[in-house]
Amino acid sequence: MGPVLAGVLQLLALIAALALAHIPLGNYMARVYSSDKHWRVEKWVYKGIGANPDTEMTWSAYLRGVLAFSAVGVLFLYLLMRLQGVLPGSLGFSSVDPAQSFNTAVSFVTNTNWQSYYGEQTMGHVVQTAGLAVQNFVSAAVGMAVAVALVRGFARSRTGELGNFWSDLVRGTLRILVPAAAIAAVVLVACGVIQNFSGIHEVGQFMGGSQQWNGGAVASQEAIKEVGTNGGGYFNANSAHPFENPTPFTNLFEIFLLLVIPFSLTRTFGVMVGSVKQGYAILATMFTIWLGFVALMMWTEFAHHGPALQAAGGAYEGKEVRFGVGASSIFAVSTTLTSTGAVDSFHSSFTGLGGGITTLGMMLGEIAPGGVGSGLYGMLIMAVIAVFIAGLMVGRTPEYLGKKIGTREIKLAACYILITPALVLVFTSVSMALPTPPHSMLNSGAHGFSEVLYAFTSASNNNGSAFAGLNANTEWFNTMTGLAMLLGRFLPMVFVLALAGSLAEQKPVPVTAGTLRTEKPLFTGLLVGAILIITGLTYFPALALGPLAEGLA
Fold first, then answer.
1. Per-residue pLDDT tens over the stretch 464-506
2. Nearest-CA neighbor of 255 among 141, 314, 332, 173?
3. Which stretches of 403-444 are DSSP H helices?
4. Quick one: residue 350, left, alpha or beta (phi over 0 = left, psi -120 to 50 = alpha)?
């Protein structure tokens, strides 16, 4: 079997698995967020935190809950790393320095999981399990809660209430993420991923010296890092490490895990707004972009010019031979079109155009299908922009799901789509202009610029993957990427929740002969076009200086 055929067959198997999970998982999540009953363990949690899960919240109250919970998470994780040296199970590692503690705490709370350190040489068992793994669950649940609040904004009318943040947070964690991660962890352990709390030990002799590895609860953290589209890795090599991802099957399974909830949330959306066809329209948009990017990535990595690459059958540099070019291409596209950031290959070693595809995937806003929650609300914002454009074309007040898109709504949507590009371009330009930050680049020229552009694109979009050629463990990059992660996560949430509150207050608009049918393929095509054009106009100059210049050289 040739490598191209193997890649295509893996892609078809992945699509089939996602299709089988879409309806049951999507319906289940809709029931979770619509139920008025509380599990006993949930009642214990509510009592412990002093929250009343039955109290409805306005968008501002919901936002205060999101920000307060996240702020406590940052503080707790920061202190845990600063105190690591005196904690049990630290494996002898010292406390993490302040700049890196700040960066890592922000990274995991914002669902970014950017790592400027070697995981197996920096973090002990307590920080990994009680700190990082816990944030993998709750940061993902926060994103899902915000998405559900926006869906309620479309589904409700004549009320400013969007549900209860604490209820949505706890249910998303205990009813969706914990069971899914537990099942996934069992499968990963059965397939060879390690799960232990062993210390540092020698694993053999190599070239006259010894190698040392520490164990860890890797399978459980690997499971939630993919299910919650978190990213990050127990080991520096991330999902390219055989302890995290040993076989081609686990590789495909991990891709399935990072895609299954974001794709299935479109079904949840359709059920909650009372029209599954609307959910299928959003799904079709996400799937079209994702499949197009996968096909383009496979073409660039299999068909790259050069005698060495042609003799090898593809661009194998930076890729694990046990996975191959096809599976690595699928993983790279899926991890950058979601907010996962896990990698099974090193994007800096991709072809020039291949590296550009991973960067562009994040620049789209990670909406195809995006992170858990963040992908859905990002795509719904783009749908609002698309119906506004359609309304301008025909001279009619735009409407979406029975709600008028007026001045307030379009301003909030516009602020949402502008904030992340502003962060990416400003931070990148400042870093290139100052004398010291460019010293962190491993390469000069277009590829070196791509390293910095990729870093701030990843941080601002809460992805977390890296080009791997940039030394980001400096005070400048630890601080600036930390700020980019904070602003890139929570400023968009402000606009999302404000939009949800504005929509929930409206009364439904009746459907007429002039209403744009947003469940039809025509709207899907309009939405895909709007996403690509808006992103292209925003980022094309930066891409031309980096990936495009390198790929066309």
1. 888 877 888 888 999 999 999 999 999 999 999 999 999 999 9
2. 332
3. 407-433
4. beta
